[in-house]
Amino acid sequence: MKVLLVGSGGREHALAWALSRSSKCETLYCAPGNPGIEACAQRVPIAAEDVQGLCAFAKDKGVDLVVIGPEAPLVLGLADALHEVGIAVFGPGAQAARLEGSKGFMKDLCAKYAIPTAAYGRFTDLEQASAFIRDQGVPIVIKADGLAAGKGVIICETEEEALQAAKNMLSGSAFGDAGAEIVIEEFLSGEELSYFALADGKAMLPLTSAQDHKRVGDGDTGPNTGGMGAYSPAHLMDPVLEEKIIHRIIEPTIKAMIAEGCPFTGVLYAGVMIVEGEPFLIEYNARFGDPECQPMMMRLQGDLLDILYAGATGKLAEIRGQVTWSPQTALCVVMASKGYPNTYKKGTVIRGFDKVSGADGLMVFHAGTAKNDQGELVNAGGRVLGVTALGSTIAEAQRRAYEAVDKIVWPEGFCRRDIGWRALESEKAA
Ligand code: AMP
Ligand code: GLY
Question: Whose alpha carbon is nearest atom 4 of ligand 2?
Fold first, then answer.
C-alpha cells in the first residue's frame, strides 16, 4: 500500500516509524515531515493545512490511505476533501472534528446524551459571562471555544482573574476568533488520564491509556504547554475504571455522533478527570496525543497500517484481536527549546545523537527539528525531541529515558526531570 501521513511533529515521527514497519507498507510519504521522519518515509514539501495540495498529491501518486496526524487539517476538512476524490482517510471529517474544534459543541453533546462532564455555560456576551462567574464562584475554568494550540484553557483561582480571562477571550485579544465564544466550567479536582479509542463511523475499538504532563515545570508547575512528557499505560487505569470510561463516555459519544449525523472516524482521545474513582470527560481530541502517541507506539504490538486502514474503511470489527500492547511501560521525555512555551531562539545545534541510537526499546522521536546549511541538526520549534524508552517498571523506563536525555548535547534545550512522578510514587507505595 501507498500511505500518506500528514504532519511534522513527534506524534507523526512515531506514527511513521510504526507504519513503516508494516509488511504491507510499500511507500510511505510524509507531508511535510521532519528530519527524523526521513529515516522511515519520503518527505513531501506540502504543508499540513494545504488541503488542495495534499488532495492533488494523493490522487497523483495513487495513495491508498491518508493518515492525518494533527487537528488543524481535520478541522479544515481535509478528510472530507479526500473522501470526495475517493481516497481512504484515517481521521474525522470537519463536522465530526468539532468534538475537538468546538468545546461548546462537545459540552452540548455531553449534556444531550448524559455523558459525565463538568457543569458549564456557553457565552458570547461579557456581561452574561461575568454574571455566571460571580454566581458560580471560584475556582472556575474559562475556555476559548475554538482551537488555541492547547493554550485556550485558564484555571482561575480568583474572581478578578476569571473576569479578566473572559474579557480577554471575548474581545479577541487572547486567542482571536477562537475566543469569540467561551465555555465557563465548574472546576473538577482529581487526577487526569488520557484514554484512546478508535472509531470507524460505526464501531469502536478501545486502545490504551496514557498520562501527559502539560505544565512546563517540575512538580506540574508553571504555564501549560502542548505536553512535556507522557507515559503509557496510565498508573490510575484498572479494568473497572476502563469499563466505566468505555461505557459512560466513549460508547455514548460514538452513538451520539451517529445520531447527530456526523459519525466519527479516527482516534477519539478523551481527557478524563478521575474524581473519587469516577470518570468525567474534560476534553475530546480528534487525533492521537502528542507526546502520548510516542509511548503508545512503542507499546503497540499489532500492525499499525492494518489497524488504521480498518478504521478508515469501516472494518474495525474484523481486527479486534490484532491490537495488543506490550505490558511494559513506555515513557517519553520531551526536550524543548529554552523559553518554551513563550519565545525561544531557533537554529541552535543539537549533538550527541550517535550515542543514543541503536538501543532496543529506545527511540528519539523528532518534533521541531531542522537541518542547517552545514547539515547539522538544529531546533526549529518549541518541542524538539521526544526521548522514549520501554521498561519493565515505570522506574526503569524513566531511568532509561533520562540516561539517553543526558547523552544529548544541547545547551539551549531543557526538559522536565520528573516525567512519570505520580506513577513512580504509586509504584513505590505498592
Ligand atoms: P483542555 O485543553 O480542555 O485539556 O484543558 C487543559 C487542562 O486544563 C486540562 O488538561 C486540565 O488539567 C485542566 N482543566 C480543563 N478543564 C478543567 C476542569 N473543568 N476542571 C479542572 N481542570 C480542568
Ligand atoms: N498532549 C496533549 C495533546 O496532544 O493535546
Answer: 289
Q: Domains plus CATH for the chain?
A: 2-93 (3.40.50.20), 125-180 (3.30.1490.20), 191-325 (3.30.470.20), 329-429 (3.90.600.10)
Q: Is the CB of 145 under 6 A from ligand 2?
A: no
What sign has the CA pseudo-torsion 298, 300, 306, 311? negative
Report CA(234)–ligand 2 centroid distance (Å): 15
Distance CA 335, CA 411 (A): 11
Nearest to 99 by CA among 206, 245, 256: 256
For residue 273, report the distance from its CA to the centre of ligand 2, in Å: 15
- Which atom from ligand 2 is nearest to the alpha carbon of 289? 4
For residue 339, give the DSSP letter.
Answer: T
> CA 148 → CA 47, 88, 102, 144, 280, distances in Å?
19, 28, 11, 7, 22
Name, in order, each residue with C-beta under 8 angstroms of 358's C-beta and a sequence gap of 6 or more: none
141 CB near ligand 1 (under 6 Å)? yes
| pTM (two decimals) | 0.95
Residues constituting the chain: 430
Q: Kindly state if the Cβ of 214 falls inside 6 Å of ligand 1.
A: yes
| 283 in contact with ligand 1, CB cutoff 6 A | yes
Q: Which ligand is closest to the CA of 152, given by its number?
A: 1
C-alpha 55 chain-centroid distance: 24
| Distance (Å, whole) CA 332 – CA 297 | 11
Helices (H), 138-292: 159-170, 239-245, 251-259
pLDDT by position in tens, the chain (length 430): 999 999 999 999 999 999 999 999 999 999 999 999 999 999 999 999 999 999 999 999 999 999 999 999 999 999 999 999 999 999 999 999 999 999 999 999 999 999 999 999 999 999 999 999 999 999 999 999 998 877 789 999 999 999 999 999 998 888 888 888 899 999 999 999 999 999 999 999 999 999 999 999 999 999 888 899 999 999 999 999 999 999 999 999 999 999 999 999 999 999 999 999 999 999 999 999 999 999 999 999 999 999 999 999 999 999 988 999 999 999 999 999 999 999 999 999 999 977 887 678 999 999 999 999 999 999 999 999 999 999 999 999 999 999 999 999 999 999 999 999 999 998 888 7
Q: How many CA atoms lie within 13 A of 4 on its CB side?
A: 28
